[in-house]
């Protein structure tokens, strides 16, 4: 074939990248790879190994050590020994280490890219042009955070020893996402790479050692699922950071419950790709290519659900199918291909089964008529159109190169369809009307939204999801907090004892007239409500004198309160100024009744008048604090290295359950409820179990303070029983629980059902009078999700 013929046909010939250096590196390790522990490669204590395979050919690539309990113990011990010294290094010293790692990645970029393509099966163009440069960017970016840690995070300290488990779809990039911030901020790391794709992690260990990273700061233990489970369950690990499937994330949440471990979960997704009729259709078609056929669709935030406005649906699908025919599937090292190999035969089988199921449920199948390489695990670009919203292919993550498409008529319907999922990781919106695009972006339940773009990532911009896509953020300032803990909480001690429930005793010679009705009702939907079970409990003073009764809330009362909170969704969309005004008004009305509340606290708890007055004064001040924050806790503008910006927008989580601490009955209640409603959440609160009357008195303050019905709901009763109901409730988006260690364990375990965010104290006592420990940004950060909206600009 002549050169002229290529110009006539505009066809591609093979352009393979050389793999000589990569194969030589593998040959040097022909006897197998060990774990990287305390700065050296060591075999498994058990001697066990397993093989890793090349997805494009099915051939064995290397032999890896299979980590067991002894290996994990050794890695954790090395990390624990190194962590204190690493954290004591000046920020500048740690910054220089991270800078050296970034430069090492750049110097060996081609080798890393080739090894990654061979090991994972993805195209060399992606590893060379995206994965490796972005990994280096993460180390550069976080070197900067190390440099300025002392000033920017002065009130925080490192979490400690961090266990990190990464997936097989972006092995090297995921390593950088996790290792860079952890090391930068003074933590030590034990990394467990995916069993399918461990090679670039081991290559990085060699490079880190050559770059002079201190022994023990970074440890890598290879193995299968059981190795990861050993890491999760290890008692001497302070944090687990996991990226992977929702099913495994749910198990990790259950197994870490009550351990006190910090937890970050970045899980699955079924991300909507919304195309309006005024979109640049050709641009949107290219967006689909990047959204679902990038990395063979093996992307947690892949735009796998196409939502196309009816008026352009036929034209859009016609152009999309035409574009699909031009995609090329081939060997990963061919620089002219668009898609490489599926990671493993087991994943290929799953993709095939789900597509078959989608067709059986009525979807129309279109697959590009292109030749697939022989051998290995390959699958063609696939489109399923006419999909129903309830079809399995519309609800389940396929994790392959399969787009499913459905139509909508109005923006409201598009939002409803987009949010019709248990996931909430990412979304794309395509429209030439920026007002429409931003309005829709703000209403999508997703941690990341791209406008007229897709799959944009940067170290400066937080990434993470909500709902069953997990919690926590990676990247940027918000990601740094995941590897830090507040100084003010470091010295917290376990509660010496829980305040006992006082029993009412008959008082001889008491001829005082009885109160007409001493039973405080529940407060649901802005109204006082009798408990469903019509049971109540007596609240007595420390001396046994009955001072009131409260309703005994049950499952139906919680259900009613959650429904009322959901109906108050307008509060989340209220202006911050309006929320601030109402909080000031609540404080003002509480101030007018300060003596009454102080007397109530004294009667319930036996506190001195001075201490009771101090608690009421602190509660009023705290309301003022969150009124002040309501219109000042704002987002930021990230400036990634592209023509555009990313808006980091703090959003209300939604409906939040609150189990108030047994102590400080008024101040504890306000310290937890106020930051939540200041940021637009709606609350179902369970007051202090032994001392609930301060909260039931407080709802009369709320009734006269213009707070919309349903924003704050109060259900009295057993903290542990009501927490159990809230934790298992799928319409509760987060749960804050302060009390016993048993309460924290139960809340974290049951929250795995819908992976709601939790905020617990693990039975540790908080000094509610201490502003450093009990108010401000520590609580506001936990009261919001940060949504990053990417807005490219220019032609």
Structural write-up:
It is built from 30 helices and 32 strands. The protein has 795 residues and is α/β, with parallel strands linked by helices. Strands 13-14-15-12-11-16-17-32-26-25 form a 10-stranded mixed beta sheet, sandwiched between helices. A 6-stranded mixed beta sheet has the order 8-7-6-9-10-18, sandwiched between helices.
Quick recap of the structure?
By secondary structure, this protein is an alpha/beta fold.
Strand content: 15-25%
Strand order of the largest sheet: 13-14-15-12-11-16-17-32-26-25
**End-to-end Cα distance:** 38 Å
Instruction: Average the pLDDT over all residues and give the rounded result.
Output: 93
Let me know the largest β-sheet: 10 strands, mixed
Helix-residue proportion: 40-55%
- The general outline is globular
Kindly provide the radius of gyration, computed on alpha-carbon positions and rounded to a whole number of angstroms.
28 Å
Number of helices: 30
Provide the structure class: alpha/beta
The number of distinct β-strands equals 32
Domain Aldehyde dehydrogenase: 41-487, 537-761
Keywords: Oxidoreductase
Protein name: Aldehyde dehydrogenase family protein
Family: Belongs to the aldehyde dehydrogenase family.
């Amino acid at each position: 074939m002549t050169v002229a013929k290529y110009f006539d046909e505009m066809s591609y010939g093979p352009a393979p990248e050389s793999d000589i250096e990569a194969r030589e590196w593998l040959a040097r390790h022909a006897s197998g790879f060990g774990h990287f522990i305390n700065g050296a490669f060591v075999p498994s204590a058990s001697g066990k190994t397993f093989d890793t395979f090349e997805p494009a050919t099915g051939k064995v690539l290397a032999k890896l050590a299979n980590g067991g309990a002894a290996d994990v113990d050794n890695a954790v011990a090395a990390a624990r020994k190194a962590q204190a010294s690493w954290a004591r290094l000046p920020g500048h010293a740690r910054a220089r280490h991270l800078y050296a790692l970034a430069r090492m990645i750049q110097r060996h970029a081609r080798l890393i890219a080739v090894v990654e393509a061979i090991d994972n099966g993805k195209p060399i163009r992606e590893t060379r042009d995206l994965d490796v440069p972005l990994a280096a960017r993460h180390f550069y970016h976080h070197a900067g955070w190390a440099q300025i840690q002392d000033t920017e995070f002065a009130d925080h300290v490192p979490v400690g020893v961090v266990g990190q488990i990464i997936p097989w779809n972006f092995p090297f990039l995921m390593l950088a996402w996790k290792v860079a911030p952890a090391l930068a901020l003074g933590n030590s790391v034990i990394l467990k790479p995916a069993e399918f794709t461990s090679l670039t992690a081991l290559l990085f260990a060699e490079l880190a050692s050559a770059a002079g990273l201190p022994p023990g700061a970074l440890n890598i233990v290879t193995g299968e699922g059981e190795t990861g489970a050993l890491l999760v369950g290890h008692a001497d690990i302070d944090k687990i950071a996991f990226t992977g499937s929702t099913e495994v994330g749910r198990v990790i949440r259950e197994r870490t419950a009550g351990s006190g471990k910090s937890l970050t979960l970045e899980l699955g997704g079924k991300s909507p790709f919304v195309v309006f009729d005024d979109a640049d259709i050709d641009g949107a078609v290219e967006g689909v290519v990047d959204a679902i056929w990038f990395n063979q669709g093996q992307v947690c935030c892949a735009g796998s659900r196409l939502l196309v406005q009816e008026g352009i649906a036929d034209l859009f699908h016609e152009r999309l199918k035409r574009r699909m025919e031009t995609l090329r599937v081939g060997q990963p090292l061919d620089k002219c291909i668009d898609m490489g190999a599926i990671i493993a035969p087991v994943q290929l089988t799953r993709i095939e089964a789900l597509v078959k199921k989608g067709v059986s449920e009525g979807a129309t199948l279109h697959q590009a008529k292109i030749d697939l390489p022989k051998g290995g695990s390959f699958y063609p670009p696939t489109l399923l159109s006419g999909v129903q919203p309830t079809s399995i292919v519309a609800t389940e993550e396929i994790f392959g190169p399969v787009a499913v498409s459905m139509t909508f008529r109005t923006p409201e319907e598009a939002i409803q369809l987009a949010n019709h999922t248990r996931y909430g990781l990412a979304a794309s919106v395509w429209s030439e009307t920026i007002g429409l695009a931003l309005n829709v972006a703000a209403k999508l339940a997703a941690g990341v939204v791209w406008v007229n773009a897709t799959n944009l990532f940067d170290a400066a911009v937080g990434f993470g999801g909500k709902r069953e896509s997990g919690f926590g953020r990676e990247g940027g300032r918000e990601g740094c907090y995941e590897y830090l803990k507040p100084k003010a909480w470091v010295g917290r001690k376990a509660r010496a004892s829980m305040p006992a429930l006082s029993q009412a005793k008959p008082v001889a010679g008491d001829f005082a007239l009885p109160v007409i009705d001493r039973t405080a009702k529940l407060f649901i939907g802005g109204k006082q409500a009798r408990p469903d079970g019509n049971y109540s409990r007596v609240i007595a003073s420390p001396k046994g004198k009955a001072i009131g009764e409260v309703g005994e809330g049950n499952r139906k009362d919680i259900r009613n309160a959650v429904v009322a909170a959901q109906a108050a969704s307008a509060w989340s969309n209220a202006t911050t100024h309006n929320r601030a005004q109402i909080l000031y008004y609540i404080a003002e009305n509480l101030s007018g009744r300060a003596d009454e509340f102080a007397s109530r606290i004294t009667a319930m708890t036996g506190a001195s008048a001075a201490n009771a007055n101090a608690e009421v004064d602190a509660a009023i001040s705290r309301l003022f604090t969150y009124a002040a924050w309501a219109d000042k806790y704002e987002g930021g503008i990230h400036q990634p290295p592209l023509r555009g910006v990313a808006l980091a927008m703090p959003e209300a989580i939604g409906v939040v359950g609150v189990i108030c601490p047994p102590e400080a009955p008024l101040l504890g209640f306000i310290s937890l409820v106020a930051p939540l409603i200041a940021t637009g959440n709606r609350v179902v609160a369970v007051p202090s179990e032994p001392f609930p009357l301060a909260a039931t008195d407080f709802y009369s303050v709320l009734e006269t303070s213009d707070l919309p019905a349903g924003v704050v709901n109060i259900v009295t009763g057993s903290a542990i029983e009501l927490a159990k109901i809230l934790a298992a409730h799928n319409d509760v988006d987060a749960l804050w629980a302060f009390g016993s260690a048993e309460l924290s364990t139960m809340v974290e375990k049951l929250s795995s059902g819908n992976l709601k965010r939790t905020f617990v104290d693990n039975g540790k006592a908080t000094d509610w009078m201490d502003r450093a420990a009990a108010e401000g940004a520590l609580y506001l950060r936990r009261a919001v999700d940060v949504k990053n909206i990417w807005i490219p600009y220019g032609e």
